Structures are given as structure tokens and as C-alpha cells.
């Protein structure tokens, strides 16, 4: 393996005045090795040498079992969370919850996501200390308990504790335990495998958006929650028995808060993409059903629009994954984010008041939620597989703010009348455009690294382990780096 390829495989090779060095990692947390070293100690046994030697990993086999299990987990975590749009529309119109207000209900939905992200550093630590399966089972229990508790809720603070806080804890442990596992089993088809796994949230959202509305209408709110609790516990519990990771083989570093990552511009651009994307995504997911009813459609039509939105994610994410592996992971993530912004500006704004137009906009849901199938593959391009769990731990922590306040912002921007959601639609589109700009700047950085290392498209295609940042030669002047950066914004290349 060439030194250049090895450099790219070592995530945080910097460029000091003398010689390249690595990001300093505490000894007990599996240090990242220099390019000339041949093995990586695992976090679970820091004194031992694992089997990872940078040779190409043979894909397939049990990896597809892992993909299927993560797909089911996503369907019964994020998919169930998507059904909150149906619950929200019911809460806003039924008046069954005492001491409630639209802002209170918005906080319930936002709190579930923000708690899931907020708990991710602790969940990351648990994975490194107790293992993936144990951490996943913690989430399974919390999620089931949350729905049981919500079934007895009569006041808004009951919902905040159950459907908000407790469900968020369950979602956070399940998601953090499973989000980085698929990437460990794939290389050439990494984006496709991740997309297949994440499409579970789309199909789960489709299923449970329709099922929740039917269960509330026929069985009542309490039994709808209890049925969902049983389904989530059985399915997620079974998945925890078959899910396997390759943390030891990969040499994964599970540091909950790796502050040195903040020193790199590319990490901030990566976080910026997620921050703005999540603001737009949460608003669309939680507002679509209420928007449909606010313009005169029935509850069933609103539920159908939400279901179509989730269906588009379920079908679209594998296609996004295939395109990412073919045309470049950062390229596809950026273009998809741009499409999501344009769709919010033009389709949702100008055609959403007509039911066929709203359905057409819902079909673009795969682009609206493009962060989920692309976050792990793009993160691996930025930091490498070894530091991906640590980077994602920080990533989810930063995204707590948009997750908490996105729907609150939407309800504050909402007015009255036929154009009640006009400000919300404009804000959503603007957030996606800002996310696109962050990712396009990140793409320029990646191209700059490849150019300075002298790697062409053929080299990258032949060595699929290439990921992460390479060293910037010290002799390169700032003006040269700036020109390379600006040039990268316009060049057409697989990244």
C-alpha cells in the first residue's frame, strides 16, 4: 500500500512544519497509528493486536444480516417517531390532553429527537464499555416503557416525560448502537448498504403513519400506544440478538467527546450540513399532516400525505445509496440536499394547497431526509472509519438544538388563513440551501486533499479503503490552497 493511501486511511494526519503527525488519542482509547505501523489495538483490549491490517474486506455474507436487522431497528425507532405527525394532528384537534398548547405538543416531538441526540455520547461510551448488543437492549426497554407510559397520559407533562424524554432515550440508544455498524461490513457498497438499512425508517414511517391513524380511530389512543409498545419491544429485541459489529477488527475508537475534532474546518462543515438539514427535515416530518388539514384536507388525507412522504424515503434511500457509490458520496448528498430545498421553495409553496400537488411534494421525501442514508458514508469520507463513532457522537450532540426547536420555530412562523404555512415553507427551503452550501464547501476541501496528495479517480476507485483526510504539504502556500479550494467548488469529479 502506498504512503498516500495509508495516509488517507489514518483519519487525522495533520501537517505541521516538520513531518506529519496524528491526532493524539489517549492510550487507553485505542490510538490512531501512523502510516508505517501495521496493526491497530482495539479499544476493548488495548494491549492486544487485532486482525485489521488494512487489507480489503470481503463484503457480503453476514453483513447483509446486519443490514436487515438495522433496517428493522430503524423501522421501529425512527419509523415510529415519524408517526408522531399523526399523534400531533390528533392532539391539536381532540383536546384530550389537559394543560396543553400547540407549543407544548411541538416540544414533545422535538424533545424525543433532541434527547436521542443528547444521549449519544453516553450511548457511545456504553458501546465501548459494555458492547453494542447490551447498549441496544437498553434502548429497546426505554422505548417500550415510553409507549406504555404514554398510553396512560392525561396531562402534557405526562407526554413530555413518556413520549418525549423516555422515547428519546430509547431512540438514542438504539440509533447510536446501530448507525455505524453497517459501514464496518461494507466497502465498495458502503453507501448502498447504509441506504438499504436507513430505508427502514421510511417504510416504518409509512406503515405506522397509516396504522396509527387507524388504531386511534378504531381502538382509541391508549391501545394504539400499547400495541406499538409490544411491536417495538419484540422486533427490536429480536434484532439485538442477531446484530454483530466489527469494532475490534476495524479498531474503532469510542471516545464520547473527542474535542480535537473541533480543530478541523471540515468537521464544522460536516456539522453545518447536518444542523441546517435537520432543521428542515424535522419541520417537514412533523408539519406535513397538520399542514394538510390546515388547507382543508381531511385527517385521512393528511395521514396519506405523511405515508407517501415516508414511502418515498423507503424507496428513495437505496437508490440514493447506489448513486452515491457510483457518482460520489459527497456529490450525491449535496445535490440531494439542493433538490430538497428547491422542492420546499417551489413544490410545497405553490402546489401544496392542492392535494395532487401535496402528494407530488411528498414524493420528494427521499431528498428531504437525505441526511440519514448519507451521514455515515460522508462521515467516513471526512474522518475515516476509526474515528467515525466519535465524530458521530459529537455530531448528534450538536444537532440537539435543531431537533428541539425546529417544530417550535415552525409553529411560531405559522400564521392563519390559506397561507398560514408560507413563512414555514420559505424557512424550510432556506435551511436546505444553507445545508447544501456547507456540503459543497466540504466537497471542495475533499478535492483539495486529493489534489495535494496526487490521487486521481482511478486510484480512488481501485483502492476503496481511501477515506478521511490526508496531510497537507507544509510547503503549500495559503494562496495556493485557496485557489485549489475555489477550483474544487466548480470542478466535476467523483467525490
TrEMBL record:
<keyword id="KW-1133">Transmembrane helix</keyword>
<feature type="transmembrane region" description="Helical">
    <location>
        <begin position="159"/>
        <end position="180"/>
    </location>
</feature>
<dbReference type="GO" id="GO:0022857">
    <property type="term" value="F:transmembrane transporter activity"/>
</dbReference>
<protein>
    <submittedName>
        <fullName>MFS general substrate transporter</fullName>
    </submittedName>
</protein>
<dbReference type="InterPro" id="IPR011701">
    <property type="entry name" value="MFS"/>
</dbReference>
<feature type="compositionally biased region" description="Basic and acidic residues">
    <location>
        <begin position="32"/>
        <end position="41"/>
    </location>
</feature>
<feature type="transmembrane region" description="Helical">
    <location>
        <begin position="422"/>
        <end position="442"/>
    </location>
</feature>
<dbReference type="GO" id="GO:0016020">
    <property type="term" value="C:membrane"/>
</dbReference>
<dbReference type="InterPro" id="IPR050327">
    <property type="entry name" value="Proton-linked_MCT"/>
</dbReference>
<feature type="transmembrane region" description="Helical">
    <location>
        <begin position="62"/>
        <end position="91"/>
    </location>
</feature>
<feature type="transmembrane region" description="Helical">
    <location>
        <begin position="223"/>
        <end position="244"/>
    </location>
</feature>
<feature type="transmembrane region" description="Helical">
    <location>
        <begin position="354"/>
        <end position="375"/>
    </location>
</feature>
<dbReference type="Pfam" id="PF07690">
    <property type="entry name" value="MFS_1"/>
</dbReference>
<keyword id="KW-0812">Transmembrane</keyword>
<keyword id="KW-0472">Membrane</keyword>
<feature type="transmembrane region" description="Helical">
    <location>
        <begin position="387"/>
        <end position="410"/>
    </location>
</feature>
<feature type="transmembrane region" description="Helical">
    <location>
        <begin position="192"/>
        <end position="211"/>
    </location>
</feature>
<feature type="transmembrane region" description="Helical">
    <location>
        <begin position="330"/>
        <end position="348"/>
    </location>
</feature>
<feature type="transmembrane region" description="Helical">
    <location>
        <begin position="265"/>
        <end position="285"/>
    </location>
</feature>
<feature type="transmembrane region" description="Helical">
    <location>
        <begin position="134"/>
        <end position="153"/>
    </location>
</feature>
<feature type="region of interest" description="Disordered">
    <location>
        <begin position="32"/>
        <end position="55"/>
    </location>
</feature>
<dbReference type="InterPro" id="IPR036259">
    <property type="entry name" value="MFS_trans_sf"/>
</dbReference>
<feature type="transmembrane region" description="Helical">
    <location>
        <begin position="103"/>
        <end position="127"/>
    </location>
</feature>
<comment type="similarity">
    <text>Belongs to the major facilitator superfamily. Monocarboxylate porter (TC 2.A.1.13) family.</text>
</comment>
